[in-house]
Amino acid sequence: MLVAGAGPAGSATAIHLARGGARVLLADRARFPRDKPCGGGLTGRALRHAPFDVTPVVEHTVDRFVFRLGYRRRFGRRSETPLVLMTQRRRLDLHLAEQAVVAGAELRDATRVESVESTTEGVTAVVGGTRVSASYAVGADGANGVVARAVGVDDAIVRGVALEANVSWEDLDPEPFRGTAWVELGVVPGGYGWVFPKGDHANLGVGGWGDEGPRLREQLAVLARAHGLDPSRLRDVKGHRLPMRRLGTRAARDRILLVGDAAGLVDPLSGDGMYEAFVSGRLAAEAILSARPEGYEPALAAALDRHASASWTAKRVADRYPWACFWAARAPGVFGAVAGLLRGDLAHPSDARGVARPPLRALSRLARLAPPTP
Fold first, then answer.
1. Which end of the chain, N or C, is less surrounded by CB atoms within 10 Å?
2. Which pLDDT score is estimated for 368?
3. CATH top-level class for 158-243?
4. What is the dihedral of CA 286, 292, 298, 302, to 10 degrees?
5. Under DSSP, is residue 211 helix (H, G, I), strand (E, B) or coil?
6. Which residues does 215 contact at the CB level (< 8 Å), separation at least 6?
7. Does the domain spanning 2-57+89-157+244-305 belong to CATH 3.50.50.60?
């Protein structure tokens, strides 16, 4: 089996395949360890599907959120249990790739998958200048990768964009961020701003619709100043695309299966894709090991579409009516529902009970007034 891309989705797929007895070549064009722009948060929901222990690369545990509207009004809420474990993709992805090797996969970093072709009989690919044959290929090389293009999903992917940077605790007072993630609402069309605590630094970022790209650097500077930080102190400034699939988008063709970002499996509301990466990796491996690749897309839809639909709804409201999201998040019981979704205790907002239900229903009604997804 060939797996192109050794990020979370690719390495998770390789781990499941190797554990199932398959011979796996895991190739990535970058040399590890390598940086990858990402907020670096692992929700409890994602960790329930991680095929390995991430404890060795966790740098900070978040059990509290601060929500702020337009850099003015704010409130905080705390959970009795951890909600997000913070890491860095440089460390996490290396750990993942190493676990794939432990499971039995062959890792070739600094090796580009240059082309891939599929028939009903198998797959041929050029990997690092050498032609290889495989029973199946898994695309985990991103939405613009060679394998994703071979499947032809580009037109069905909605693209967001994010810009992030790091700042040392020497330049930013760490006290307001201990165990706390800040979420800034109403500051970026189609998205939000954030400050996430890490080990020796904080990660700041802004993300929104794809056409916000040219303005993100200015918006990142505004975010920094709102936290009393001189923007010139920001380092490692990087931008990245956020591929978000429309429901029903194909994720396979013949013997090629797409996972993670390659399939556009980024949550439309949060911009996070770790949960989707781990779930799609497991489902792709199960389809391959059972020799039923045609079962992958239905299984993916059954696992992800209900939650993705709710996220698209919430994203429309957050874009058009950020004040309503801020109001709802303050309402009794709503943060408990949000925490349940982050932990994986709730599969869908409609599963919330008690006093959380009326404000969540109000947001759903507002979504019908919001413009459709681009």
1. C
2. 73
3. alpha beta
4. -30
5. helix
6. none
7. yes
